[in-house]
Amino acid sequence: MDSAKLRTVLLTGFLTLTAGCQLTLNSNFGNDNVATSNIYTVAFQLTDASDPDNPVVLTTPKITVIAEQEASVSIGEPNKQFIEIEVVINEGEPTIGTTEFSILKGDLRASGKIMALVGQAAELHTGGFRIKVLIEPQSTNRE
Predict the structure, then answer these.
(1) N or C, which terminus of the chain has less Cβ within 10 Å?
(2) Vertex 34, ends 138 and 61: CA angle to 5°?
């Protein structure tokens, strides 16, 4: 058997034996705080509530945030709509998430800050918009 066929057979056998296995790589390099920090999912619902009889949900993004780190998302569309959100989770007693946002939709503009406790929804009405925020911890089970 030539070496190319032997390599193919060995590689195929290796892939067959490892099918369904999980490979985990750990590194001692980088920020040790990130490895031990909690991770949170921040869910938003941004609604154009300028017409109270016909509120329109603009977007429902979710952001994954590492505690004490800043995370952000920007959403822009061709119809003069732009949404920018920045989130920081400060762990402590209690753990609080701070969300700063800026919204531009046609002639409507709004910006502000919402502080929310982890696990409790917060809501803000401003500039014809309704912003809801929910921060949930992610599971820290690592296998």
Answers:
(1) C
(2) 45
List average pLDDT for each run of 10 residues in the chain, which is 143 residues long: 61 45 36 60 91 90 89 77 85 85 84 90 90 87 54
Q: What radius of gyration, in Å, describes the C-alpha atoms of the chain?
A: 23
pLDDT of residue 14: 43
**Other CB atoms within 10 A of residue 32 CB:** 9
Question: Quick one: 122 exposed, middle or buried, by C-beta within 10 A (0-12, 13-18, 19+)?
Answer: middle
Amino acid type, 136: E
CA-based nearest residue to 45, from 75, 88, 79, 80: 75
85-99 in b/e form (b: 16+ CB < 10 A) is bbbbbeeeeebbbeb
| Burial classification of residue 104, based on how many CB atoms lie within 10 Å of its CB (0-12 exposed, 13-18 middle, 19 or more buried) | middle
Pair of tokens at residue 108: 């409507």
